[in-house]
Amino acid sequence: MISIGIDVSKDKSMACIVSPQDNVMVKPYEIAHTDKELERLCSYILSLDKEARVVLEATGAYHLPVVLKLKEHNIFVSIINPLLMKKYSSIKIRKGKTDKIDALKITSYGIDNWFHLVDYTCSKDVYDELRFLGRQYSHYVKVKIQAKLSLSNILDRTMPRITSLLTSHNTAKLLKNKLLDFVEEYLHYDNILALGEDSFIESYNRWAKEKGYRASDRKAKTIFSLASIGIPTLSSSLSSTKMLTLENVRVMKEINKTLDIILSQMQELANVLPEYDVVRQMSGVGEVLSVRLIAEIGDVRRFKNGSSLVAYAGLDSPPYESGQFIATKRSISKRGSSLLRKTGYEVIQCIKSTKPTEDSAVYDFVMKKQNEGKPRMVANIAGLNKFLRIYYARVKEVYSVV
To answer: Which fold has domain 128-270?
Structure first.
């Protein structure tokens, strides 16, 4: 057996080839991530007269060119969790870190764990694309939060308390936001007061009808009352006030537009998958959360059982025993996808808010835990654990029929 260890970095890697008893066949050398050099590596591996296995660490997107080229030639490739490699390296007495040393360590890991290595299998393109889109969606959500905080800071100085009055509760309609449209129209309390109450009510109702919102004299009077008693701390006469307000609104609308485009693409891709309808019908899962769940979980058939999916989310609680001591209060490992945990937590919040009467197993379980005196977070995590097991069973059943 021959182990080929590859320490992957951006645009290049360090490769080393070792046979048993630490017989270094090829000393660590640098490989650029080009078709020519990777093709040369593949040709050399295929020319070996003994079984060869390539071992490398997961490094985000950097290792993908290497893995895809190796799998084109049906070469055994095992992708190792960096945490496992870190713990394996920690047994050495003398510490040291260079690309060459790392390549040798990865190669040695391949020899020592030869029979535990798992060959990497490429997932369907649709799952890879969904995962990529899901990560981008999460990124833009973070950008949106920062932009929203920036706009809120400005509005606290130009229209105090307006955000609580015009907050949109329908997060599914990203392109329709009453607060943004209102701020873009009126900009400052001074502009509202300048119209007078009757003129503003007429103006507000006309604006609401044009934008597709419900006209309301009562709402208009409430806004005018806020403008009357509010104390703006940023003058409307400053040119920067109008510029910054409009720019923040524009940025928020552009982010919402981007999120809507990404979400539409995710829904289009997920709609062709056999599990989409099943996931969509689960309690607490709507149009947005269904595709986000599928994107992050991927092909459920790669998990051995429901417990494996729970462990992938980092919700498992590893046992801890020593002698006669058996730990009863254990925390979740968090050794898994943090994005799946966040998405799952949103699902549990939706289930609790809708209080379903049908398909209520998860909701009943969460309420049972809370009634037992469990803290709210503990009950939610327990409910998410149960939800993922149900998700696994239902989606796996779909594929068993297909």
So the answer is: Helix Hairpins (1.10.287)
Cα end-to-end distance, the chain, whole Å: 39
Element (H, E) at 8: strand 2-8
Cβ neighbour number for residue 157 with a 10 Å cutoff: 15
Is 2-116 CATH 3.40.50.12710? no
pLDDT digits (tens, 9 = 90+) for 255-266: 999 999 999 999
Structure tokens at 102: 């790392």
Taking the C-alpha atoms of residue 46 and residue 223, their distance in angstroms, rounded to an integer, is 74
Query: What mean pLDDT, rounded, does the chain reach?
Result: 89
The conformation of residue 191, written as its DSSP 8-state character, comes to H
Long-range contacts of 8-13 (CB under 8 A, 24+ apart): 8/56, 8/57, 8/59, 8/62, 8/63, 8/66, 9/59, 9/62, 9/99, 10/62, 13/56, 13/66
Q: What would the pLDDT profile of 196-247 be if each residue is shown by its tens digit?
A: 999 999 999 999 999 989 999 999 999 999 999 999 998 888 889 999 999 9
Which helix (H) or strand (E) segment holds residue 342: the answer is: helix 338-354
Measured in degrees and rounded to the nearest 5, phi and psi for residue 188 equal -150, 150
Is the pLDDT at 90 greater than 70? The verdict is yes
The tens digit of pLDDT for each residue in 262-295 reads 999 999 999 989 999 999 999 989 889 999 999 9
Q: pTM higher than 0.90, yes or no?
A: no
Domain boundaries along the sequence of the chain: 2-116, 128-270, 277-401
CB atoms within 10 A of CB 70: 21
- Give the whole-angstrom CA distance, residue 295 versus residue 269: 10
Ramachandran angles phi, psi of 341, nearest 5° = -65, -40
